[in-house]
Amino acid sequence: MTSAQDFTEMDAAEESIAWWYWNRQAIFKLRAALVQALTACKAGSGAPVLDYGCGNRAYQGVVQACDLNYVAADMPGNTHADIVLNEHGEIPLDQQRYDIVLSAQVLEHVPSPAKYLAEAWRVLKPGGSLVLSTHGVWVYHPSPLDLWRWTADGLRATVAEQGFEVNEVRGVMGLLPMSIQLFQDAVRTRLPTWLSKPLCGLCQLLIGWTDRLHKDSGRARDAMIFVVRATKPS
């Protein structure tokens, strides 16, 4: 269960992000969508969650806010990882170990989404859940590569092809705020810092306000980020 204290701590962390930070609203809204997806998995208190491609452990607080046990995995050289993947991105663990595999903003960077998802399938327990987020529309951001973008239908098909039962595809940030974000990103790097900061601050306010004009059904068609919740059949 997620407690009021957990959400207070998450809110405090969000407030630490500067008002002018260029993707402030995307961070907030993605965190909220991941909490919803993780909660909907209905794993027991303390259930193990593998963050497959953990980066700087940006989603550790999200997992812990859902009263789940966070385990980080990433490629060699990432000192934030609890588990070091091999050079092919494979997890050096026995199969059927985790209740949930979390993949947050990773899939667009992997050379083979099919192999990546097959590895997530392998380490999930039967009946376990995959919670995955990736981009519908976003600016180019290599880390070290940036290879893929999806439509909602395409992402659903990509996940289902690996044997998962797709429970839900949720969109984060609809068409209008997405357009404002892209405008901001096209302009901000061309401006001096003293001007780009207030521009980003204004755009982020507009993004937060205009996203309220979209219904969930609209975001499920056109979104900046998609969040998938899927199950490995028992």
Q: Brief overview, please?
A:
With 234 residues, the chain is an alpha/beta fold. It is built from eight helices and seven strands; from the N terminus they run ααβαβββαβαβαααβ.
Count of alpha/pi helices = 8
- Largest sheet, strands/sense/barrel: 7 strands, mixed
**Uncertain runs:** 1-12
Count of discrete domains: 1
GO molecular function, one term: methyltransferase activity
Protein name: Type 11 methyltransferase
Keywords: Methyltransferase, Transferase
Organism: Oceanococcus atlanticus
Give a verbal description of the structure:
The chain is an alpha/beta fold. Helices cover 39% and strands 20% of the residues. The protein is built from eight helices and seven strands. The chain has helices spanning 4-15, 24-40, 60-65, 113-123, 152-160, 175-188, 193-210, 216-219; strands at residues 48-52, 69-74, 83-84, 98-104, 124-135, 165-172, 225-231. The chain has a seven-stranded mixed β-sheet, sandwiched between helices. Helix 4 links the parallel strand 4 (98-104) and strand 5 (124-135). Helix 6 (175-188) runs antiparallel to helix 7 (193-210). This is Type 11 methyltransferase. Pfam families: Methyltransf_23 (PF13489).
Task: Give the secondary structure arrangement, pairings included.
Blueprint (H helix, E strand, L loop, with lengths): L3 H12 L8 H17 L7 E5 L7 H6 L3 E6 L8 E2 L13 E7 L8 H11 E12 L16 H9 L4 E8 L2 H14 L4 H18 L5 H4 L5 E7 L3
Parallel strand pairs: 1-2, 1-4, 2-3, 4-5
Antiparallel strand pairs: 5-7, 6-7
GO molecular function, one term: methyltransferase activity
Organism: Oceanococcus atlanticus
Keywords: Methyltransferase, Transferase
